[in-house]
Amino acid sequence: MSALTKISLIKKCTAGLLVFAIINILCFKIFNYGLKQYYCLWPADILIIGHSMSEMAIDRDLLQEQTGHTVAKYCMNGTSIPDRLVMIRHYLESTGHKPKVILYDIGPRSFSDGLSINSHALFYPFINESPTVANYVRSNATSRDYYLKMLVPLSRYDDSRIGAVTRGYRHDWKNRSVKQLNIEQFKRQLAKGNFWKAQLNSERQAVFKETLDFLEAQNIRLFLLVLPNIDLLNNAETEKSTEVMKYIRETISHHPNVTLIDVNSNFESRHELFIDPLHLNPQGQQEVTTFLANKIDFP
């Protein structure tokens, strides 16, 4: 190969890499804007932190309308208690704003295993936006994954996030599920012991206490929401569920800025409001949101 051919090849490769980098960065910025809109990473009076239960149970627009306060809804499917603290810190760091109150879903299974063991991947798009997120991802991701995400920003997205990006651009936070709860099928699962069980995990308990202490130091009021689960699930292990809820009540008794709101007991027997044992349908979302709007007060 002649010297001129080598130079030409190098120029073409360099140009190709430059085009790839530019397209990658531009697409990432487009995706990131939509995702930040969906997760409402902007200053608001009320910040909702949770996983899919909160996402399906609380109508952001309706809550904002009924309370007269701005609402940010930062909910990601599969987030556990350690993830929630990262989400709170991420919100504060990326917006530079402290909400007046935080709504945070809690319940008998909040300290259990069963949520995503790779939930740090949910935060890949925000590595560069928050020191807390950067440290969390670096501590949990493999070196290969971490450096790939840093070098190729678009690789921080997978198919599951594109829907959130699209809904973010549309400002669409509504529960639009058309699924229906199959009671008989769930009864069979219960009989086999195939359900998400309540338990206490010491590591998650420690992070929960850390979260309460952090919010108290920030002077942010916290409403812990026991969101509805179907009564069949709640009655499957009442002793263990009672133990977990007792722990929660005892823990928050030392934190005057924390209020526990039991939403579950008002809706657990309303089977027509569920799409599965843990999640509400659109009608359920409307009713629960209205219930919450009448329970929340402000400092």
Counting DSSP E segments of at least 2 residues, the number of strands comes to 5
Low-confidence stretches: none
Assign a percent range to the helix content. Answer: 40-55%
> How many helical stretches?
13
Question: What features would you describe in this structure?
Answer:
- The chain is of the alpha/beta class.
- It has one domain (61-293).
- The protein has helices spanning 3-38, 52-57, 60-67, 81-95, 131-140, 143-151, 159-170, 183-191, 202-217, 231-234, 238-252, 264-267, 282-293, and strands spanning 46-50, 71-75, 101-105, 221-226, 258-262.
- It has a 5-stranded parallel sheet, sandwiched between helices.
- It is globular.
Provide key terms for this protein.
299 residues; 13 helices
Task: Give the topology.
Blueprint: H1 3-38, E1 46-50, H2 52-57, H3 60-67, E2 71-75, H4 81-95, E3 101-105, H5 131-140, H6 143-151, H7 159-170, H8 183-191, H9 202-217, E4 221-226, H10 231-234, H11 238-252, E5 258-262, H12 264-267, H13 282-293
Parallel strand pairs: 1-2, 1-3, 3-4, 4-5
Helix pairs in contact: 1-7, 3-13, 4-5, 4-9
